[in-house]
């Protein structure tokens, strides 16, 4: 990989100085790969989903900042409970989508705008889209609108796109995963997070077919060893990095699992490395 800005910025037709600065912050490790830890889960999963395991959200974010994470994804209100000092060496991605799952588990709505996220100190924005949901048209429109605002403000955009909905039986099917990644690229995202197909799929073709970096979603936290193996396979196939939340914060020692993920992303090390 030629470098962090080239891996993303070369596909942009109207790059801006502000966007390049923020991309440099995201890719400050210099490896060309990104390790992102999403912590937006309590809105959909319930209170104390991660902070209850580790004493507080602030303590958890502090562990992430010192053990190899490049960025953390947080909702706007969560930032009130996190010390700014952690973001000296950790980028902030403000998540602009939300859905509780108490009504339609596949629905996502915008709860934060790009200007508001920038006022909070965001280095990047993230938006969630479930392709195949009953509300897919509105979610696609939201992604397009946020992408336009990000372009205006020079802010990198991470799109979390999944094939999920009443008619989706296998969201990991290679055709659907490739479609999800394409949606993100076509509607203006700089990065896409999605689940990847199971072992045996042609991951290299999927990565090569997407013009923006693909971050492999962390997936099932119940079988950590298998998930780590799958993520290592994704990195070997050309993934642009890993975005793992539950795999990290459900572990009794999040720092330890984070260091293993950092070795995969930053050093392209084998899965057994520590």
TrEMBL record:
Transmembrane segments: none annotated. It comes from the Bacteria. InterPro entries: Aldolase_TIM, DeoC/FbaB/LacD_aldolase, DeoC/FbaB_aldolase, FbaB-like. NCBIfam families: PRK07226.1. This is 2-amino-3,7-dideoxy-D-threo-hept-6-ulosonate synthase.
